[in-house]
Predict the 3D structure of the following.
Amino acid sequence: MTTVAVPATAATPAEQARPRRGWTQHGLLFVAPFLVIYLAFLVWPLLQGLRMSLSSVNIAGTNDRFVGLANYAEAFGDPRMWRSLWNTVEFTVLSTIPLVLLGLGLALLVHHLRFVQWLWRLSFFGPFLLPSAVVSLLWLQMIYPPEYGLINGALGTDVLWLGDPSTAMWSMVLTTVWWTVGFNFLLYLAALQSIPRHLYEAAAIDGASAWHRLRSITLPLLGRTTALVVVLQLLASLKVFDQIYLMTGGGPDDSTRPIIEYAYDAGFTGYRIGYASAVSYILFALIVVVSLAQLRLFRKSEEPS
Amino acid sequence: MDGPPIDRRSLLGGGLALLGAGAAGCSIPAGLGSTRTRVRYWHFLGASDGIIMNGMVRAFGADNPGIAVEENVLAWGEPYYTKIAMAGAGGRSPDLATFHLARLSGIGAGRILDPIDTALLAENGLKAADFSPPIWERAHVGGELYAVPFDAHPMVQYYNTDLCERAGLLGPDGRLLPTNGPEELLAALRKAKAALGGRPPLVFDALGLGTVGPWRLWRSLYPQSGGTLLSEDGSRVTLDDAKALDALRLMPTLCEEGLCDPRTDYGASVAAFTNGQAAFLWNGDWETTGLKQRGTPFSMARFPSVFGKGSAQADCHAFVLPHQRERDPEVERATYRFIAHLVKNSADWAVAGHVPAYLPTLEQPDYLALHPQSEYRSVITEVALDPRAWFAGSASRLWLEFGQAFSPVISGAITAEQGLARARQALSRLMAAPNPFPAEER
């Protein structure tokens, strides 16, 4: 007769509840490929950038002397840094609102249209597939030109869409909305299609109007998607660079220059990589603050009431 | 070539050009295993400048079968100087590159660029006395030669000969009657306006993405009354408000009266002049070939003297040797041979409109026979080069910032005082910012 060998030290319930201590033995191996890339291409550059932001290093990698917080002090006293930071914030606010609302609106529209759905899906999502250079050329050469552009031609106006500081940022927002709204639209459409149909049937039997169904079923059930869309949109808008660089180059009169372009200008045109790193870190700080604020906000709203 | 300046759109084109150049680089016959000495040559000379340069490279190849010059054409402007800096920093750079002389102070000579060996130059028949003295002097940094000057490309006045004749502005020899001072200029422009049926007779690059046109105009006018930007050593701002404002006010004054069009960007200004919709174009000298090809009836003259002297903004093309850790002596010899070939054949290059920096060319009959390229050659002694500062030169921060400050002055969006205040602010910021390549690093 044999007895089942019982481990000399039986695990207490408390120990069982903790993750197994041995996970690093194999787990680390599994995540190693990812970790290596993560360390090499994210953590290391991040630390290196921080170090460079405290130095006077130039584009050639020379003149690499520690200057403490001098770059940051200069950046905080630099009106063009503030202007471009403000432009980025302005663009983020102006673009995020229509991009989220329009994405939702288009998704609702397409969800309820019963004919040629693929065509609507394609036409709303299509622009998102275009590279930024194509989008920029399209709007720069065909839609915005004051003399022969589509908009002035259609409206009979004579507006310098990209040449006037008062319209340039709005023009950039318009282009960006047209270009990227498809992504939010797609997320919303997917979420809409996953709402169980019987909820609407039950509501209809209870006599709820279409407006009521939208407000009490659709929108609450889209809450998580909205949270996701807003997070992704804010991050994308804060990182705006390519279409503005290609279409206005930051002008006219600095009215569209985003902070990333200012960092690019300081580093690549001005050869001052140290200062450019400091400017980048200021944007990084802004993004961290926005992300933390959002996290708190959504945590609160998602707690069961 | 210098224009269209810093057009961000051209970046796309530049990217394509790069791809093309990369592909072309692979198909160069003088690859590995070839017995020919390969000289890798980077430049930013596009459009008609590029065609002329390519012709000169071919001519060199025909005369020197043992040397293969590998041309690599990159996008003009900021991206070019970024690439040169990176290549020189890495020490595995091209053997030869074109450069703007005024950018020499800001590139880290000694770090990014290697000095020129004057003995090797002399061996190939080039000596200091052959070059225009102020330009030769500007090719030095800290007493050492870092560039071989090739040309100066000043602001000039293009004029439509048909329109000017109708307006009675040509002399008996068919040349534009020179104007002196603002009154004469205005009178001439008014006549041209009448001849054009009320259209603005003068066009220039007044606005656009990263425009440097307003800077070029102001930089041509302001030094005419003796105004300077920085002290000789580049350590102090010496901007004279009264003179600067006079120069700055000329453009909006002209535009208010309908004598110029403030709503033209670089391309539109050249197009308007090409199509005969304007009698005058104020621009750099590099549109010559294009205008000839399109058959515009035109000639060129020196930039008008409005405030005293006849100075005109200019920068110079030059050749530099980006830093290499190990320079192959054979390639080096071939490189100097090539430089000497280009410089001595400056008359071929002058076809593009640029004024040769190599003085013997200025006396050569085939240069003097060039029309209208030789019409404005006297400007070479009065060119207004950029101040010696690390932030100056073609497509530099200085040009961009001043262009941006002055563009709204031309259109009347802000006053000349506001524009100057902005420029002054930008200049003091640039002065306060540390030089990324300080002298002690050399």
The interface with chain B takes residues 56, 58-63, 74, 78-80, 133, 137, 140, 160, 163, 245-254, 265, 268-273, 275 of chain A (CB under 8 Å). Chain A is about 70% helix and 0% strand. The CA atoms of residues 71 and 151 of chain A lie 43 Å apart. Confidence is low (pLDDT under 50) at residues 1-8 of chain A.
